[in-house]
Structures are given as C-alpha cells and as structure tokens.
Amino acid sequence: MLANVPDAPPAYLSVCFFGRFATSVGGIPVERWRAGKSRSLFQYLMLHRKRVMTRDQLRDALWPEAEWRASSSSLKVACCGARSTLGAGKQPEGAGSPIRLLHRDGGYLLDADDAWCDIEEFRDRVHEGMQHRSHGRPDQAAESLERAIDLYHGDFLAGQDEDWIAEAREYYRSLALGALDVLRTSAMDRGDADTVVALGQRTLQIDALHEPTYQALIRVAGLLGQPEQALRWYQLCERRLRRLIGVEPSADTREALQQVLTGRGRSFVSGPRGARPVEGRARA
Q1: What's the whole-model pTM score?
Q2: Cα 29–50–80 angle (5° rounding)?
Q3: Distance in angstroms (rounded) separating the CA atoms of residues 253 and 213
C-alpha cells in the first residue's frame, strides 16, 4: 500500500499519479528505475493500462524530438528496464508473472492480475457521482464525489512536463473541478457556509483563476453578513487575474460583489443543520 494514499486497498501493484509519483510492487516501494526512459514508459503504459500502445505512439510521447532509425534501441532498453524493475513477465503471454509488460501487435501492453491506481479509482468515482446526480440521487452523488476528491493529492505527475503528461493533467484537473463544483453548489443550496468555503479553497488550490469559485465565496461572505470578506475575495481574484493573465474580473464576478455591497440577496441564519439561507437583505 502506498504511504500517501492511506485509503488505497492492498494490491500487488499500487500506483499513484496525483502529486508525487509512487509505485509499490508486492508491498515494497519502487525507489529506483533502472534504465533510460523505463519509468516514463511504465507511467505511459499504466495510464493506458490493458491497451496496446504502438511503437509510434510510445516514441512520439516519450522521445518527441528524437530522429528514429530502424536500429534504434531506446524503446527496447526502456522496456527491459521497466520489466526488470517491476519483475514483469517476459514470456509472450506473461505466464507466471503477476505483472505483464507484453510485446503485442506491433506495440506494448501493460497488464496485472492485482493492481490499484489512484487515477483509475478517481475517474470511476467521478463518473459514478455524476451518474447519481443525473438520476436525482444527491446523497450518493456527494459520497462518490467526496471519495474522488480525497484521492486528488495534487496535479497529475506534478513536476513532470512532457506534452502527454500536460494533456492528461488538464483532463484530471477538469474532472476534479467539475466534482468540486457539484459539491460546492450542493453545499450552497443547503446553506452549509463552512463547506462552501472549504471546497472553494480546495478548488483554488487546483485553479487559482477559477472565477465561479470566487463568485461563490463572495456570495457566501455576503450571506453571512461579511461584506469586508466579500471584498477581500474579490480583490484576491482581481490581483490574480491581472498578474497571471492580464484580464479583469468578469461581469458575473463584479455583479456578485455589487449585490453584497448593496445589501441585495439573502442571509444565512443558524438552524438545526447549521447555517441556512433566508430571504432578505444581508447584514451590513
């Protein structure tokens, strides 16, 4: 089991892509990779587990600038290094090995009898949660999405900058932001101000320019009768947008602040389940 994911079920092969990359085989962490691009090859094949990746796909992803010749051995060296590190079977069908890195149909395939991977679990829980939501099961949706977010310990392969990694990173970021948006909206609807703020801060750790989150935080501050806090959230949004991409806050963000400063909207009051929204003017 991997130390940075305490909820990971025991598995012969365990892999974490979120934040610091980590792998364990038979309960033993893999600390060193033997040759060349062996680690990158394993990462790419694990990302596409149980699918055959052609030589061209692997070369384009892992050696995008290289000029390939028929005699090139880089891919073979990386494959041998990965097999050696993982104890992956070398037989045509990987017989007798719990991890198989197979040469098949002009490409390579990674398979394992007993494997757990954080991105696979994360993706499954997000899709499960969205299905629950679309079928009108909010409690089940929240449970699945919360489990997904608990797995998101940082960007996909943080610190690695290859193009294929950047593409996957944006995909998983979008899934995380979508899950957080659903959870935040649900918390707002039930008047759970603390959860809205916590989810908002979690979202901004992933995307510091996510304006819908600033809008929600501004509105919550207004609903709690905290116009000064609403203004601070707006100013933070404004500074980051100007500094990072050179734009001003959107009309929706400006309108959210204006509603708070003019006392329009609703306010939160204490109730049996915590804060809940009521109609009227926000406390100034």
Answers
A1: 0.85
A2: 55
A3: 10
> Which residue, chain included where needed, has tokens 């933070």?
236
Question: Minimal CA–CA distance to 40: which of 25, 27, 54, 21?
Answer: 21
Residue 73 confidence class, pLDDT cut points 50, 70, 90:
confident
Distance CA(154)–CA(125), nearest Å, equals 17
| Cα atoms in the 13 Å half-sphere on the side-chain side of 215 | 13
pLDDT digits 0-9 by tens, 177-192: 999 999 999 999 999 9
**Whole-Å CA distances, 207 to 104, 114, 181, 234, 262:** 40, 34, 12, 16, 29
Dump pLDDT digits (tens) for 10-47: 799 999 999 999 999 999 999 988 767 999 999 999 99
Helix (H) or strand (E) holding 277: strand 274-279
Q: How far is CA 104 from CA 91, 92, 257, in A?
A: 11, 8, 59
Distances from the Cα of 264 to the Cα of 165, 191, 192, 219, 277, angstroms: 45, 17, 20, 10, 13
Long-range contacts of 269-275 (CB under 8 A, 24+ apart): 271/191, 273/190, 273/191, 273/192, 274/191, 274/192, 274/193, 274/194, 275/191, 275/192, 275/193, 275/194, 275/223, 275/224
CA 178, 179, 182: angle at the middle one, nearest 5?
90
